[in-house]
Amino acid sequence: MRHALSVTSECVPLVKTGGLADVAGALPGALVAEGWEMRTLLPGYSVVMDALGKTKAALTFESLFGGPAKVLQASAGGLKLFVLDAPHLFKRDGGPYSDSGGRDWPDNPQRFAVLSLAGARIAAEGAGKWAPDVVHVHDWQAGLTPYYMHRDGTRVPSVMTIHNIAFHGLAPAAQLDQLGLDRADFTESGFEYWGGISALKAGLNFATKLTTVSPSYARELMTPEFGMGLDGVLRQRAEDLSGILNGIDTDVWNPAGDPNVPAYKSPPGKRRAKAALRKEFGLGEADGPLCVVVSRLSDQKGLDLLLDALPALVDRGGQLALLGSGDPTLEGRFRAADNGHPSVAVRIGYDEALSHLMIAGADAIIVPSRFEPCGLTQLYGLRYGTVPIVAYTGGLIDTVIDATPMALRTGVATGFHVHPATADALARALMRATDLYKEGDAWRLMQRNGMKMPVGWERSAAEYAALYASIAPAP
Ligand code: ADP
């Protein structure tokens, strides 16, 4: 087996705030078949430390930004882990990036510089008897790893994956020395960004290869509209940037064996799940499709467009059940849309089990994101015969085949694209979906097409393995 070190700030099943955690948790298992053993370096947040069984110290640091630290070797949740045990930085109540009131930890630059340093040290020296052939880092939290490796002359190749370019990992220039950053690299081709330090840019400039989580998002990132200030950097690295779609865990998301859902193997079998979902949300029978949303409520997800387009669905007999949390204004607007409306049901919160029932029981899932690096819920939808209605952006383009007249005639459609990203366009897509739903056969064909799509990790893992092998040829 060849060795890959993954450096990440979150990883299923130990700690998750978004899709990054799903990727980091799934990739190690899927890479085994490709001949790669992946070990994962994670911060020792309280929730992570509490989940560890037996541990062994693999590296020690006398002092890292104000306290002693160790890299522990451990296993948990089926993963081989290196955990950075630095209680002064990670032993806290609250989330990985913010306190329980949602405020970012003020020392985030230090916390994740430390994670990155530990990754670079494992790359340079190995840990225990294990040393990586490739280092794979995720998002800004691990962005300094390729830089520290460059600084130290470590010759192990690296891959950086961009899951969400909106977060740059900025720190003031005054922290250069403290973070161990060389002033000679405080330049446009290094990690300097508008007079400050960007950990994300460090990764983009110093990693051997760059990936993001879909081919379409890789193209979009090189444009000013989506690059969020880093499109120029990415255009310069166009040759090294590629898109590899995320997969989903097809054991966890399996309509034929999902503990949260009455089992089914084909579209007609969804009936019992639909009834259970209606009961859960207090929704009655209806002529139109039962649509769901499972999402963070943030501007990115475009759900304000759905609020405006909702009449197009409910006036044609459709229904909406939404599960989500986040932006208080959106939460309030969805609560208000639910209030007294028999066809709209809203649950504010985060509920993994309920999300399974919703995706199984629904006819369609709506994902109207303004940008979407890959998106996972439309993949769950495909797997469960729940037709995705998605914005024409990022990974949503690459994973859903629009029900154009041509695609319907040739029988390959799997869902609906919304283009452009406006409430009007979403309303039109909802009308198209409602009409097709009432046609029965064409709808069932779309459901079956979706259920046949290869949405697991096998293909993606093969692409990552090929990328690793291209920069770290077997000896
Ligand atoms: P992002 O990472 O931008 O939030 P993704 O679609 O890539 O978007 O991943 C979101 C993940 O979080 C999915 O697994 C989705 O099911 C889950 N999720 C989001 N909101 C909720 C919620 N309120 N309850 C349960 N699961 C949720």
Q: Secondary structure elements and their pairing?
A:
Blueprint: E1 2-7, H1 19-31, E2 36-43, H2 46-51, E3 56-61, E4 69-76, E5 79-85, H3 87-90, H4 108-125, E6 134-138, H5 144-151, E7 158-162, E8 170-171, E9 192-193, E10 196-198, H6 199-206, E11 209-212, H7 215-221, H8 224-227, H9 231-236, E12 241-243, H10 271-281, E13 290-297, H11 303-314, E14 319-326, H12 328-338, E15 344-348, H13 352-361, E16 364-367, H14 377-383, E17 387-391, H15 394-399, H16 405-410, E18 416-418, H17 423-439, H18 441-452, H19 458-471
Parallel strand pairs: 1-2, 1-6, 2-5, 6-7, 7-11, 11-12, 13-14, 13-16, 14-15, 16-17, 17-18
Antiparallel strand pairs: 3-4, 4-5, 8-10, 9-10
Helix pairs in contact: 4-5, 5-6, 10-13, 11-17, 17-18
The structure holds adenosine-5'-diphosphate.
- The gross shape turns out to be elongated
What do we call the CATH topology of the largest domain? Answer: Rossmann fold
* Main sheet summary: 9 strands, mixed
* Relevant CATH superfamily of the largest domain: Glycogen Phosphorylase B
Beta-strand fraction estimate: 15-25%
> Can you name the CATH architecture of the largest domain?
3-Layer(aba) Sandwich
Number of separate domains:
2
Count of helical regions = 19
Distance between the termini: 12 Å
Radius of gyration equals 23 Å
Strand order of the largest sheet: 3-4-5-2-1-6-7-11-12
User: What's the count of strands?
Assistant: 18
CATH class of the largest domain: Alpha Beta
